[in-house]
Amino acid sequence: MSADRSRLAVHGGVPAVPDGTIQKWPWIEETDERMVLEALRGPNQARGEHSLAFEREFAEWNGNRHAIFTNSGTAALHMGLAGCGVGAGDHVLVTAYTWSSSATCALHHNAIPVFVDIDFDTINMDIEQIEAALTPRTKAIVAVHLHGLPLDMDRIMSVARKHNLKVVEDACQAHGALFKGRKAGTLGDCAAFSFNQNKCLCTGEGGMFVTDSDEIRDGAAQLWSFGETRMPEQSRDYHAYALGWMYRSNEITAACGRAQLRKYPRCFEMLRANAAVVHERLAGVPGLIRPVEPEGHTHNWYNYCLRLDMDAVGWDGPPRVLRDAARKAIQAEGVPVSVWQQFILPEMTVFQARNAYGGGFPWSIPGANEGVDYSPDRFPVAQRHCDTYISLVQALRAPNGAKAAAAVAEGILKVFEHMDAVKTDAAKQFEGGSD
Length: 435
Ligand SMILES: Cc1ncc(COP(=O)(O)O)c(C=O)c1O
Hints:
Layout (H helix, E strand, L loop, with lengths): L29 H12 L7 H14 L3 E5 L2 H11 L7 E5 L5 H8 L3 E5 L13 H4 L4 E7 L8 H10 L3 E5 L7 E2 L2 E2 L6 E5 L12 E5 L2 H11 L26 H31 L6 E2 L7 E2 L5 E5 L1 H4 L5 H14 L4 E2 L10 H4 L27 H9 E4 L9 H16 L1 H14 L3
Parallel strand pairs: 2-3, 2-4, 4-5, 5-8
Antiparallel strand pairs: 1-9, 6-7, 6-11, 8-9, 10-12, 12-14, 13-14
Helix pairs in contact: 1-8, 2-8, 3-4, 3-7, 8-13, 10-14
The site of pyridoxal-5'-phosphate has 14 residues, from helix 3 and helix 4.
């Protein structure tokens, strides 16, 4: 890359990444199209050969005894808590910074999320703080492998077993990621994957629930399909034995998932190779905090998350103002970065108002609100992360290769080289008070 680096694109310079360098996600090839068409023309639109095969193939690839194909990762999380026997008024520990449904899945089952602050380096739940967050009602942990970096599941399982808690892995972003060589989704009692638009394995929308336990699987399956005890492909009695939802998906989505799964090992390696290119190029850049991959953890780099070190760049204004100016400048260079989750979870209205179902329910269950404190200032590390990060989500994925990755790195580097100009923009923004 030898583009003119003298002026930022946001100030009229030449973008570091020429148009057409980065190819779009998801990567659709002839096999994807053929399998989807085959499903569309097939004898069943729901619960046919593609759905059953996708469950089998996913379970085999990931190393689980059971897999149930769902219409979202959120559905699979809810199924996990239900399958683990979490009930009304129980407490569920979850990280303070994640997607909202890592926590609202508890509310779906009338259970109550209790938040734990994050560890700044890994952006995952701070395992050290779990025991202090326990209450007599704590029944489970939702262990989120955020951005595709698995938690230290030896430590999570050890604290969970000590306190008789179930662990639902939120592997919605963690397809193929490993902890000590073992796949995300095989490390807790059960797990949820998402296949939504952004995910490394993408079917538009969709999800997979996995577990090795027959008992957890049966509870989850009942919730998944109308409270019935028989699978739709079996002879059903159409009897609701318990309160159930409709969390099933369809054949076209399953066919797409099967096609994507076939090439996923290749996509995983390509993404890791591209992330390595960016990671090496961005080493030692003043003011830039690169994401980590601790020993024994294999990241899938779903989100290569950059953070601005406000002290190192000499910015003492509101961190978001500089972060947003840097994000805009990087975007103008042709690198598709974004800001994903804008709020820490405890700050969100559903938790602040404690009014999921009206009447203050489920927090109004007698005794259920004890030990639950959603004051945002209890989660300073999550807040610092939330105020300073910029996400790089799709640009490093297949079919993009090393050339695109190098271009992405150049675009980011260029902005950090011109950080004084970015600070000037941010200062004007701050003084002007508008976006
Ligand atoms: C960490 C995490 N958990 C849960 C979900 C929910 O998945 P879905 O959108 O498939 O319901 C997502 C998806 O955005 C996620 O990123």
